[in-house]
Write a structure and sequence with these properties.
The protein has about 400 residues and is mainly alpha-helical. It is built from 15 helices and no strands. The two termini are about 25 Å apart.
């Protein structure tokens, strides 16, 4: 079985496991708990994403460096950036109106372990066996789901009410980060001879990668923080839980397709990414319909009925994200990573306007109207990004 199939299959299993984890949240935890967890995990994700500054993609794209050397360099620079970002993370916690302690501590632990897991996935994709590539993707979500279920059952049996969701996510990320240990302990070695696309690389400056990552992370974090501040934890729980489920599909497309193309220096058939993007879009729609069916049949607690207003707009939004994810490898193969980053920065700014404009100019807007506006703007920007990527010309392959 080739690398693409291994990663695709393991990512599908991981995806299914994370859907189960999301269902655990809907079934066993209140919207209040899910909302608070979503804010904390998003701050940790923001912290981690900004600290990485897309270093996990550089590990894949920079084939002139050995996998061990690339992973070690990425970890060192990311850890230093993460330390420097501590004040910004603290500001995000303060703005969310959650207790500063232990929220900041939880966010920091989540960020460090998730950063290690992200780099471990890139490292094993280049240097690991098929079993390692599958395990690094499957075991972390299985661990998180198992811990969440155990905590929920313990809470029902003995009345324990601890930070179950945060703890389960932390343990899952920690398990994934263990696969980075061999890279950090190994001595630097020369890059292996590579017979793929020798023009593939990530020549962006650290400043541009940082700016690109900052804009993406700020937007993702701002969505949840703004929702928490305007509509409260319950509405945030409704939106974030569904966004977590539907957002798995474009994430799987990026990991199981785009990253494999980069790691192996492949040049796919021009039609292939279209089929992958459209197929993933269909999967998002199917998941949205499944969520609607679950609500209609009363399979979920009545407290989750508010999810109805979010199904259609979020399904369209994440479906469009699948299209851009299917083509996200192209800038690295065309020397257009700089143009790609600037396009992402501009379009993320447009999305931010869709989020913040109603907040300041429509103070009485309801959450269902707000999410419709944000989703419409996001769909337009993602389609525009996909069209921009298609303008990049794939360079000739050399062997």
């Amino acid at each position: 079985m080739n690398t693409s199939r291994v990663v695709a299959l393991s990512s599908a299993v991981a995806f299914a496991t994370q859907v189960v984890f999301a269902l655990f949240m809907l079934r066993w935890f209140s919207p209040q708990e899910v909302g608070e967890f979503s804010v904390i995990s998003q701050i940790g994700f923001f912290w981690m994403t900004l600290a990485l500054a897309q270093s996990q993609l550089s590990v894949l794209a920079n084939q002139h460096l050995s996998a061990h050397t690339a992973a070690q360099h990425a970890w060192r620079t990311s850890a230093l950036r993460g330390l420097a970002l501590l004040p910004i993370a603290a500001l995000a916690v303060w703005f969310s109106q959650l207790a500063m302690w232990p929220t900041l501590l939880w966010a920091m632990l989540l960020a460090v372990c998730q950063m290690g897991w992200m780099l471990a996935q890139s490292f094993t994709l280049r240097a690991g066996s098929a079993v390692q590539q599958a395990a690094v993707r499957v075991l972390p979500p299985i661990t998180a789901a198992a811990v969440a279920l155990t905590a929920a059952m313990a809470g029902a049996a003995v009345g324990w009410h601890g930070p179950s969701l945060v703890l389960s996510a932390l343990l899952g990320y920690a398990v994934g980060a263990l696969w980075l240990v061999p890279a950090l302990r190994a001595r630097a070695t020369p890059a292996a001879t590579h017979h793929g696309n020798k023009t593939q690389a990530d020549p962006r400056s650290a400043a541009l990668r940082m700016a690109h990552t900052l804009v993406d992370a700020l937007l993702a974090t701002a969505i949840l923080v703004v929702w928490q501040r305007l509509y409260g934890a319950e509405e945030t729980g409704w939106m974030s839980a569904l966004l977590r489920v539907l957002g798995f599909v474009p994430a799987v497309v990026h990991v199981a397709w785009a990253q494999v193309v980069l790691a192996k220096g492949l040049q796919p058939n021009r039609a292939t990414p279209w089929w992958i993007g459209i197929g993933a879009f269909a999967c998002v729609i199917a998941l949205g319909l499944a969520c609607a069916l679950a609500l209609y049949q009363g399979w979920l607690d009545p407290r989750w009925d508010g999810v109805w207003n979010y199904i259609a707009p979020l399904a369209l939004w994440q479906g469009c994200a699948c299209l851009s994810a299917a083509f996200s490898y192209r800038p690295f193969q065309t020397g257009a990573t700089g143009a790609y980053s600037w396009a992402c920065i501009v379009l993320a700014g447009v999305q931010a306007l869709g989020l913040l404009t109603p907040m300041f100019f429509m103070p009485t807007i309801e959450s269902n109207q707000h999410i419709n506006i944000l989703s419409l703007v996001s769909c337009i920007t993602l389609i525009a990004l996909t069209l921009q990527i298609l303008k990049f010309k794939i360079k000739a392959m050399t062997n």
